[in-house]
Amino acid sequence: MKTSSIIGHVREALEEFFASDRIPSDLLLRKFTRQRRYLGSRDRREIAALYYDFLRLAPRWFGQIGEDERGGVETLPRAFAISLLVSSAVDEKDVSVGCGVDSNDLDIHLGPAAGDRLPADEFGLPVWLYDRFALSFGNETRDLCRSLLRPAPIGRRVKQQAISREEAAAEITEATSVDAAPSPYAPHGLRLEKRIALDAIKAVRIGHVVVQSEASQLAVASLGDIEGRSVFDACAGAGGKTLQLASVVGRAGHVFADDIDQTRLRRLEHRIRASRYGDRVRVCSWGNIEEADRPDVVLVDAPCSGSGTLWRNPGMRLRLEAAALTSYRATQASILKEWESRIEVGGTIVYATCSLLPEENEEQVADFLALFSGWERVDLRKVRNELPDAVFTEVGDIATTPHRHGIDGFYVAVLRCVHRV
Length: 421
Prior knowledge:
alpha/beta, 8-stranded mixed β-sheet, globular
């Protein structure tokens, strides 16, 4: 496909993204390319590369043409064209044709010199978010922001009962020539050096290797050995952690899953049928579980800013607003309060987010413990020796970041009810 046509397809995909206020950038691109079956694998790779390159620094490119950092459909073609001329070795004619912009309008406005540019602009972040990162990470802030400009790592989870991680990694590497290695952090995780189709690999085809990021696997890993126990996944979403729970509770255990998003639950039900875990996973609300069967472990993967996954879904940096953080905090506190009232003495809440912001993580947990004196934090350093020291915080929670660990930003705290006041 000609360069100008590749650029034109990217522009169309970006226009669809900016016309939508809900669909994540990765899901939108996947749908966009699937609808155009004539695209070859090389075409799809080139389209994806330019698409994500623009989104990672989109606030900067809109700023360089004097527009609001959040941009829009009308100003997108020129901002995209300027980004290509500044950062890519692309012919101006191809840019003009592909972006649908007159060559006379392609005068490059360089904006402030690099030394005068705001740090937030340099990393394509909203100013408010960069400032919060700076408060939390201090001298590491630039390293963190730089890491969020890189492509996200490719994570997989291995069903250890069926195949070892080493065997799965060797099978993938032999079949694809792509390096696959055991995760240094997630006990059942694999890390691939780049994205590649794995459907033809037997371990993937029969479900022994499944899609799940390394960081998110740590929420279930924080529970240790739960074979034979029952767990309630309160914010199940698409079900990655639900199925991970099902793989470790064993045939004698049970997993109950619920979510406010019914569309996600329907997808989860399909995944359950395909996973062969239908005998131990049930999609239902807490109220529909017999009181005697109700689990004493609840996983709350709470709605959050998603700031720890910005490199995975770079379009979020255009949609995330400071006001939304206030709303997320209120929702998280409400969910924790709801489950506090339901869990009996000895029961456990696993609170998790994919956020890098302390307001959604340790501060949220501190507020909970201050409000409910009958609860305590479980120091995971003392009870999860199988996990590496690098994932633990000073108080025994789990916290990962892209620049320190090379995986998504993720937070886990385990809270136990010790008495009722």
